[in-house]
Amino acid sequence: MIAKGFSLDELAREAFSNLRGQGRRSLLALLGVVIGSAAIVALMNIAYIAQATTLKSFQQTGVDVLSIQLEAPGGRGIDIPGLKALVADDADALMAAPYAATTSMVAAGSRIQSATVAGITPMMEQVAHLPLEQGRRLEAIDACSRVAVVGNKLASGLSSPGAAIVPGQVIHIGAYGYTVVGVLKAVAYQSLSPIPYDDAVLIPLECARQVMPGDGATGALVRLRTTADSAAAVDRYTAALSTPQAPVRVQDARSMIETMKKQMSLLGGVLIAIGSISLLVGGVGVMNVMLMTVMERRREIGLRAAIGATPNEIRMMFLIEAILLTVAGGLLGDVLGVLLTWVATLFLPFDFGVNWMVLFLGAGVAAGVGLIFGLYPAISASRISPIEALRGD
Amino acid sequence: MCNEWGRANVPIQPSMIEIKDVSKRYGEIFALSEISASIGSGEFVAIVGNSGSGKSTLMNVLGVMDGDFSGSVRMFDVEVSDLSAAAAARLRNERIGFVFQSFHLLPRLAAWENVALPLLHRGVRREERKVRALAMLDRVGLADRVDHRPEQLSGGQRQRVAIARALVGEPRLILADEPTGNLDSRTGAQIMALFRALNRELGVTVVMVTHDREIAAQCDRAIEIRDGRVQQPEVAR
Out of A313, A387, A393, whose CB is closest to B102? Predict the structure, then answer.
């Protein structure tokens, strides 16, 4: 036989020109597919962004860290020597970095603003890996001197023309003047640390009580060995440090990540449910449109069959038409999904971003819907008898 | 691609189509009853009968669109009832050109695209399709109407487009079902003249189904069907 049949690109060309003839009706049927794939794209993209943000929020401290915090500030606080002894005896722990944090007014020249004041030990630098922009870190030798390291945002907030916050400047915390010895680089939000470094003044812990409401530490970071069982460590430290007067809460990075994942999967479940229902509705809509198209084009189908289109070719023609239709919906869904992601980032502590793989997935899922729901109309088209369809001359 | 019309000057060969004892019934009614006939290559034959005579059923059998009958139909050395749906479609595409009473042009396609449709389903590239379609439109006298849509054409012009479509795949057989039925008598006569010219010049076999005995009289030979039977003897003209 000479014939090699209807080629795929020709089929696609035919399907495309047929779709253009359909116009508005196709668009309406697509609404479900658009919403469904948008929901899926938005979900996947938000999950992607959330994961990236989460990873970033543990970047500085790492995941092998415990965060110990007083349940309620004030009073005696966490017993620092006790904590140090505990860590020294713990084979799973490397070091402890106690801190005391409070909110206070900080002034420099005529500028004044509210900031977190945190008394830290040099250990904190080692646990939290804080990057310096200029000057130096707090050292053990600073002990009771009035020196401070200023967070990046706070430094620019307190700077005034001609009086930038640079090492050597003096700032006031309450009634005390502190000499700035260093300025930090901007630090991304850190899940485990209660100190917002960008908006904080770091001073030596030893004499911090001068500007603090209470004694002792309000919290501590403990670095564990990478092999440590962090869940067991949480229980151990909670038991050892909690007193009836000052209960503490201990968190580990791993369980915090778990909690975030759980929240994400709940959100994901809701979005997938919405997406699936929309896709189902959209798929039925597409099936409906395709069945109408097949009915309207009975004569054309009959004619094509008479002049030599095989049932398989006719089936493919309508299947490709359905898939093109839903892929168009999927692409619109991609756009809408990215838009939804952007809106979500306005309310969530995430930076906007797009995972390109997710966009392919959105269009791919839509194509799958076209394939599944286009199959029945396509098969019914291929079963139209040319004799019946061309009758009625 | 081999040119089937290369055989144009070969004398008529017997039995390009060999119909033997073909019967078909719908319930209790026999649409076709033990029909036997043979049509040679290059003939110009009418199948004539009144409405309900079974001539349309016979047309469907000869068009390889209906394989559900008893008896035997051999066309182009192939037993038609043995063919799968896909093989029947391929046979129609390569060997048979169809012309219908109501033209059956696709309204959204230009004339040349309508003509090229059989080639599309044969897998011929677009450029070649266009060249061949234009040549065929020229052949039927519509060289200046190639980009017109069917609605912009008169009935006679539409039927010419349909004839060009039937011819574009270089078939060995043209099956025309009441091709002048929707045309006025003058246009009908022009269409008949066109069929006659194509038959003579290209050597393509033409089988025309009609209820109109005047039309049938213009063919070389008429096979008359009445109540699903061939009226014997065949009337030689």
Answer: A393
Q: Does B102 touch chain A (CB under 8 A)?
A: yes
**B14: helix, coil or strand?**
coil
In angstroms, rounded to a whole number, what is the distance separating the alpha carbons of residues A28 and A226?
A: 55
Residue B5 lies in a domain: no
Residue A20 touches chain B, beta carbons under 8 Å: no
Give the mutation candidate from A2, A6, A383 for the B interface (greatest B CB count, under 10 A): A2
Higher-scoring residue by pLDDT: A74, A148: A148
**Does the global pTM surpass 0.80?**
no
Residue A22: closest C-alpha in chain B: B108
Contact check, Cβ <8 Å, B121/A300: no
Residue A279 identity? L
Per-residue pLDDT, averaged over B115-134, amounts to 92
Q: Cα separation of B228 and B33, whole Å? A: 5
In eight-state DSSP terms, residue B43 is -
How many Å apart are CA B116 and CA B131, to the nearest integer? 9
The angle, 0 to 180 degrees and rounded to 10, between the axes of the packed helices B155-168 and B111-120 is 30
B122 and A311: CB-CB below 8 Å? no
Query: Which of B93, B117, B182 is opposite residue A3, by nearest beta carbon?
Result: B93
User: A307 vs B101: CB contact, 8 Å cut-off?
Assistant: no
Contacts of A250 (CB under 8 A, 6+ apart): A66, A67, A68, A69, A233, A234, A237, A238, A241
> Distance, in angstroms, between A309 CA and closest chain B CA?
6
Nearest residue in chain B measured CA to CA from A17: B108
Interchain contact B108–A (C-beta under 8 A): yes
* Residue B155 structural domain: 14-236
Is A305 in Cβ contact with B89 (below 8 Å)? yes
Residue with tokens 């700077």: A159
Structural domain count, chain B: 1
- State the Rg of chain B over Cα: 17
**pLDDT band for position B153 (cuts 50, 70, 90):** very high
Number of H helices, E strands in chain A: 11, 10
Beta-sheet pairing, A170-173 with A176-184: antiparallel
Q: Does A308 touch chain B (CB under 8 A)?
A: yes
- A-facing residues of B in 176-215 (CB < 8 A) are 177-178, 181-182
Q: How far is CA A145 from the centre of its chain?
A: 42
Cβ atoms of A234 and A255 closer than 8 Å: yes
Structure tokens at B136: 């065929």
CA–CA gap between residue A390 and residue A21 (Å, rounded): 22
Measuring CA to CA, which residue among B176, B223, B174 is closest to residue B22? Answer: B223
Q: What is the ipTM of this complex?
A: 0.88
Is the residue at B2 inside a domain?
no
Q: What size, in residues, is chain A?
A: 393
Cα–Cα distance between A350 and A260 in angstroms, integer? Answer: 13
Tell me how far apart the alpha carbons of residues A38 and B169 are, in angstroms, rounded to a whole number.
47
Torsion angle defined by CA atoms of residues A267, A272, A277 and A280, in that order, rounded to the nearest 10 degrees: 170
Flag whether B185 is in a domain.
Answer: yes
Kind plus residue range of the DSSP H or E element containing B35: strand B29-39
Residue ranges with strand state E in B169-218:
173-177, 205-210
Measured CA to CA, the distance from residue A17 to residue A14 in angstroms comes to 5
Distance from CA of B120 to the nearest CA of A (A): 6
Span of A182-196, A342-356, B90-104, B135-149 with lowest mean pLDDT? A182-196
User: Within an 8 Å CB–CB cutoff, is residue A299 touching chain B?
Assistant: yes
